[in-house]
């Protein structure tokens, strides 16, 4: 599940009446304290200034909300507000057509519109002309609006342009050395204003600010740079990521007290070893033989040192009271049959498939009876093999030939390590190194975040070009964040967003600094 496809699950998980961080929520109005002086300044300039007024800020900085507040706070009896949009109609003809229609003017020309403005002024009504998305106006539209703002001696409309900072350069190029416009730049929210904004958004959807911790609110404020549009995206992503993490925890199987199958087999193997060792304790002087074949015995002389019995995988030889007792040389696996392999096909250590290797020491040839034999150094432990091996040092002379023990089968060769994991790790490292090499002041466009690296790789492969992803950790879980491009300024990143495909823009991509990405990469390491 990605942030592009989590709408229904997102609302149901948090019991929300609607998406609290949608770009346009009906009835939502948040106007922080710092914006009230800006609103008062606009009213003051509209009354006393003869210049065109420009309000700038990045995408999602609250320009439209300020424009709505300006219209709402005017006296409807003395001011007629005309709101037009430059989106899709950024030339002079498109803008003038909207103005003429709102003022009920048949001829969409600047002179005809100004005559209507003068007529309204005679009746005691001023005209506020407010243009949204003004950065999309072309040169002809800007020239027409500057002409309307200049007006005539009899009257003029008050023209307000709400757009991104790129608008200023276009106006400066047209006006040259003349002072034709005044600029007001919006400022980002403070952290406390971010908290109030989140609280009001969540309360409108039936939730509360307690969904976020104080640390999460600080992270949201820092990642969004305090701009409300970015706050919406970052907060929504954080809630979706928390939802994915909580659902993954619920789906994780409970451990309980159920013992894994391998552990059961290991305990069974210990029992088998105990049964095998029972053949070596005193009191078992005889053992059943097969169809007349004599059982070979290695008789240990009385009075000799206690033989050392060394078990495979044991730390040191163990002394057993075997003096004068026969040692069976038949394969222990025949006596302790049963479990041979674990659930993955590999012999379980300590099971009947890997029985203990028993080594006894006896006096070498030529040593007379009654003389203590020189202790023999313990034999190095052999590697476990599927077939049991019981090696006994025979006293000399041996009256009967000893049948050779069956050859041990070689242990199965280890399977070669899988390679795909290394490939994925290499790809992730390459992406991280690219972000580390970018200037910290640059901006990238965050497209989406997903908990599946395969989904991130598929998205990047499908889109190609300048799409990349990096890995970060959220609530102990990996999250793969897809970004687009590297831009020297936020304005350049905002412009790139508008050129993205429609299905990518549907996820509300937003610009963020390379420095913030590098911080997340450093935290992940």
From TrEMBL:
<feature type="region of interest" description="Disordered">
    <location>
        <begin position="284"/>
        <end position="365"/>
    </location>
</feature>
<dbReference type="InterPro" id="IPR007730">
    <property type="entry name" value="SPOR-like_dom"/>
</dbReference>
<feature type="transmembrane region" description="Helical">
    <location>
        <begin position="264"/>
        <end position="281"/>
    </location>
</feature>
<dbReference type="InterPro" id="IPR049945">
    <property type="entry name" value="AAA_22"/>
</dbReference>
<keyword id="KW-1133">Transmembrane helix</keyword>
<feature type="compositionally biased region" description="Low complexity">
    <location>
        <begin position="353"/>
        <end position="365"/>
    </location>
</feature>
<protein>
    <submittedName>
        <fullName>AAA family ATPase</fullName>
    </submittedName>
</protein>
<keyword id="KW-0812">Transmembrane</keyword>
<dbReference type="Pfam" id="PF05036">
    <property type="entry name" value="SPOR"/>
</dbReference>
<feature type="domain" description="SPOR">
    <location>
        <begin position="437"/>
        <end position="513"/>
    </location>
</feature>
<keyword id="KW-0472">Membrane</keyword>
<dbReference type="GO" id="GO:0042834">
    <property type="term" value="F:peptidoglycan binding"/>
</dbReference>
<dbReference type="InterPro" id="IPR036680">
    <property type="entry name" value="SPOR-like_sf"/>
</dbReference>
<feature type="compositionally biased region" description="Polar residues">
    <location>
        <begin position="287"/>
        <end position="298"/>
    </location>
</feature>
<dbReference type="InterPro" id="IPR052026">
    <property type="entry name" value="ExeA_AAA_ATPase_DNA-bind"/>
</dbReference>
<dbReference type="InterPro" id="IPR027417">
    <property type="entry name" value="P-loop_NTPase"/>
</dbReference>
<dbReference type="Pfam" id="PF13401">
    <property type="entry name" value="AAA_22"/>
</dbReference>
<dbReference type="GO" id="GO:0016887">
    <property type="term" value="F:ATP hydrolysis activity"/>
</dbReference>
């Amino acid at each position: 599940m990605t942030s592009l496809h989590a709408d229904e699950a997102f609302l149901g998980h948090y019991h929300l009446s609607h998406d609290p961080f949608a770009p346009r929520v009906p009835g939502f109005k948040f106007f922080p304290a710092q914006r009230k002086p800006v609103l008062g300044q606009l009213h003051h300039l509209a009354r006393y200034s003869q210049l065109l007024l420009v309000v700038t800020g990045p995408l999602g900085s609250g320009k439209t909300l300020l424009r709505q507040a300006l219209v709402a706070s005017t006296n409807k009896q003395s001011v007629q507000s005309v709101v037009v949009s430059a989106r899709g109609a950024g030339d002079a003809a498109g803008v003038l057509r909207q103005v003429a229609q709102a003022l009920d003017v048949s001829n969409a020309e600047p002179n005809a519109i100004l005559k209507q403005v003068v007529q309204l002024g005679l009746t005691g009504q001023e005209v506020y002309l407010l243009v949204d998305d003004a950065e999309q106006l072309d040169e002809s539209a800007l020239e027409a609006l500057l002409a309307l703002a200049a007006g005539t001696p009899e009257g003029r409309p008050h023209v307000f342009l709400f757009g991104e900072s790129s608008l200023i350069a276009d106006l400066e190029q047209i006006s040259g050395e003349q002072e034709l416009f005044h600029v007001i730049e919006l400022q980002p929210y403070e952290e406390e204003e971010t908290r109030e904004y989140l609280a009001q958004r969540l309360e409108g959807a039936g939730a509360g600010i307690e969904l976020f911790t104080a640390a999460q609110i600080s992270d949201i404020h820092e990642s969004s740079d305090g701009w409300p549009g970015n706050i919406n995206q970052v907060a929504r992503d954080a809630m979706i990521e928390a939802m994915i993490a909580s659902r993954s925890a619920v789906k994780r199987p409970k451990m309980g007290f159920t013992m894994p199958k391998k552990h059961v087999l290991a305990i069974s193997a210990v029992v088998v070893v105990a049964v095998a060792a029972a053949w070596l304790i005193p009191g078992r002087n005889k053992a059943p033989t097969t169809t007349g074949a004599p059982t070979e015995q290695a008789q240990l002389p009385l009075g000799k040192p206690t033989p050392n019995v060394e078990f495979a995988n044991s730390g040191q030889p163990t002394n057993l009271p075997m003096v004068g007792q026969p040692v069976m040389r038949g394969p222990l696996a025949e006596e302790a049959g049963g479990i041979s392999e674990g659930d993955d096909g590999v012999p379980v250590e300590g099971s009947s498939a890997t029985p203990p290797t028993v080594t006894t020491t006896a006096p070498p040839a030529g040593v007379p009876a009654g003389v203590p034999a020189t202790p023999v150094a313990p034999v190095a432990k052999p590697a476990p093999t599927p077939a049991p091996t019981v090696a006994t040092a025979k006293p000399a002379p041996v009256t009967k030939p000893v049948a050779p023990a069956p050859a041990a089968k070689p242990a199965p060769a280890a399977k070669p390590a899988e390679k795909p994991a290394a490939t994925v790790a290499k790809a992730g490292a390459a992406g991280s190194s690219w972000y580390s090499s970018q200037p910290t002041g640059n901006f990238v466009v965050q497209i989406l975040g997903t908990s599946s690296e395969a989904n991130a790789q598929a998205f990047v492969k499908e889109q190609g070009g300048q799409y990349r992803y990096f890995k970060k950790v959220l609530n102990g879980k990996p999250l793969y964040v897809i970004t687009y491009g590297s831009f020297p300024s936020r304005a350049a990143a905002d412009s790139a967003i508008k050129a993205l495909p429609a299905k990518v823009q549907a996820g509300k991509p937003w610009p963020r600094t390379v420095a913030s990405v590098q911080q997340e990469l450093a935290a992940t390491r």
